[in-house]
Design goal:
By secondary structure, this protein is mainly beta. The chain contains 1 helix and 9 strands; from the N terminus they run ββαβββββββ. The protein folds into 2 domains: 75 residues, no CATH class; 63 residues, no CATH class. 11% of the residues lie in helices and 31% in strands. The longest helix is centred in the first third of the chain and has 15 residues.
């Protein structure tokens, strides 16, 4: 299901309104991640110029969620390997590089920043790590 978070004047907390859903039809059809990517693309096309930020659990990660003009936040699996973005073509013979330098693995210690955010009507301090990387599975 894909929802839009809105702030209503009668509520103190934001509300998520469902706008799209897709049903997974079993083996041999598009995966749940591919369906989520399709919904994200539909929403991005319907709302050009708007900031669209997707959030999913650890099962929702992969290339299908790399939709132009959107961001996706998820927990990385412990076996994930992160690489820098692929360098530009060099003009030399041979296949161009598909990935950049290795940045680390999902289980590696990372530099964490503490963010203060409003959640459920209270201010909370949460740990967060961010960066720009290309997803790659082992």
């Amino acid at each position: 299901m894909l929802g839009v978070v809105v702030h209503l004047p009668l509520r103190t907390a934001p509300l998520c309104l469902p706008v799209l859903f897709r049903l997974w039809r079993g083996k041999g059809t598009a995966s749940a991640v591919e369906l989520a990517g399709d919904m994200l693309a539909v929403l991005a096309a319907a709302l050009p110029g708007c900031a669209i930020n997707g959030v999913g659990d650890a099962a929702y990660h992969g290339r299908a969620l790399l939709v132009e003009g959107t961001t996706w936040t998820t927990r990385l699996p412990t076996n994930a390997v992160l690489y820098a973005l692929a360098p530009p073509c060099t003009g030399k013979r041979g296949r161009p590089a598909r990935k950049g330098a290795r940045l680390g693995e999902g289980g590696d210690p990372v530099c964490w920043a503490h963010l203060v955010c409003a959640a459920c009507g209270a201010m909370k301090s949460e740990g967060c790590a961010s960066g720009l990387a290309a997803p790659w599975s082992r």
